[in-house]
Amino acid sequence: MMTIERQIGDIAAPPAQEWALLRARLAQRADADGLLDVAYAAVDSPLGVLVVAATPAGVVRLAWARLRARLAQRADADGLLDVAYAAVDSPLGVLVVAATPAGVVRLAFDNEGSEAVLGDLAARLSPRVLEAPARLDAVRRELDEYFDGRRTTFDLALDWALTSGFRRKVLDATARIPFGGTGTYRSVATAAGSANAVRAAGTALATNPIPIIVPCHRVLRSDGTIGQYRGGSDRKTALLRHESRS
After folding, report:
1. What secondary structure, in 3-state letters, does the chain show?
2. pLDDT range class, residue 2, cuts 50, 70, 90
3. 172: closest CA among 190, 149, 150?
4. Spatial CA neighbour of 111 closest among 225, 233, 242, 214
5. What percent of the chain has pLDDT over 90?
6. Which active-site residues does the annotation give?
7. Is residue 19 over pLDDT 70?
8. What pLDDT digit, counting tens, does each position of 67-100 carry?
9. What average pLDDT does this structure show over 110-118?
10. What's the CA gap between 173 and 198, in Å, rounded?
């Protein structure tokens, strides 16, 4: 009497087409019975096979990160990547950091909306904007070191394309405020060449395209109160506390 294992071993395997048909039928039955939580398929593309998965709620992009990386590498090699960006986890939430070949051009908080930020970069700088984390490795590393208390200054090239004139002068003055120190709206306005332009200095700080790295959180009102901040007053307070403890 043959064992079950021997009987199964004696059965010839069906052709590949029959296996494919069987898998399709099983998938259809599982879907009909509500037992299919995640469906997936391999999709051929010019950049290789892309694995795409979907739940009943929508598409889950399993291999999209790899595809984006290849697109970024190809665009960079072909000189077609004008603005690279990456998402960076931080104690203040997810930050979007963008850079051009000249340097860091934008740092945005999640309350600003990543789609709005990227759309603004495309409109004001170049439509050739692509997620390319490798291009921002140094930025991500220095931000991590800053939040870990291991860095008090940033050694990063900056691209000032999103600001100019008096606003740029205000941000230059702001960049010189040391870690753990503070200034006032009037002090940075004075350093920028116009002591009475306090309101204009406030506007420059509120629209600072590269917060944290250009530390506008260190600028307070003359009475010592927090004042406005692009990321919100809670984040400004958190940054000041972080620097006072480090």
Report:
1. CCCHHHHHHHCCCCCHHHHHHHHHHHHHHHHHCCCCCCEEEEEEECCEEEEEEEECCEEECCCHHHHHHHHHHHHHHCCCCCEEEEEECCCCCCEEEEEECCEEEEEECHHHCHHHHHHHHHHHCCCCEEECHHHHHHHHHHHHHHHCCCCCCCCCCECCCCCCHHHHHHHHHHHCCCCCCCEEHHHHHHHCCCCCCHHHHHHHHHCCCCCCCCCHHHEECCCCCCCCCCCCHHHHHHHHHHHHHC
2. very low
3. 190
4. 233
5. 60
6. 216
7. no
8. 556 666 665 665 667 899 999 999 999 999 999 9
9. 93
10. 13
Tokens of 130: 């692509």
| Residues contacting residue 224 through CB under 8 Å, at least 6 positions apart | none
Q: Encode 22-71 in three state secondary structure.
A: HHHHHHHHHHHCCCCCCEEEEEEECCEEEEEEEECCEEECCCHHHHHHHH
| Tokens describing residue 4 | 């079950």
Question: Taking all residues of the chain, what is their mean pLDDT, rounded to a whole number?
Answer: 83
Opening angle at CA 61, ends 59 and 65, nearest 5: 160
Domains and CATH numbers, the chain: 38-78 (no CATH), 81-147 (3.30.160.70), 165-245 (1.10.10.10)
Whether the pLDDT of residue 43 is over 90: the answer is no
Between CA 172 and CA 200 the distance in angstroms is 14
pLDDT of residue 46: 54
State the Cα–Cα distance between residues 175 and 177, nearest whole angstrom: 6
* Strands 95-100, 103-108: pairing kind: antiparallel
Cβ proximity of 100 and 82 under 8 Å:
yes
Mean pLDDT computed over 105-118: 95
